[in-house]
Amino acid sequence: STQPWIEPKRREEIAQMLRMCEADRVLVYSSDYPHFDWDEPKTVRGDLPESMRRRVMVENALEIFGDRML
User: Fold this and answer.
1) How far apart are CA 21 and CA 14, in angstroms?
2) Beta-carbon count within 10 A of 43 CB
3) Residues 6+ positions from 26 with CB-CB distance below 8 Å
4) Is the pLDDT of residue 17 over 70?
5) What is the largest CA-CA distance in the chain?
6) Model's pTM, two decimal places?
7) How far apart are the first and last CA of the chain?
8) Is 3 helix (H, G, I), strand (E, B) or coil?
């Protein structure tokens, strides 16, 4: 999952790391709410390349959990 969110020194490395680990296939968003260091969806979403955004934020979780999420 995305919690804790990766924060390399150079922000441009985020997309490279996500491509290397095939995030569009295996990563799902998680906030870790209600802990003090939770990640808002817009924090993570803003760093995701457009090509991966919907997969990580929605579709991967739907594939994993299916109807159990609804």
Assistant:
1) 11
2) 13
3) 60
4) yes
5) 39
6) 0.73
7) 19
8) coil
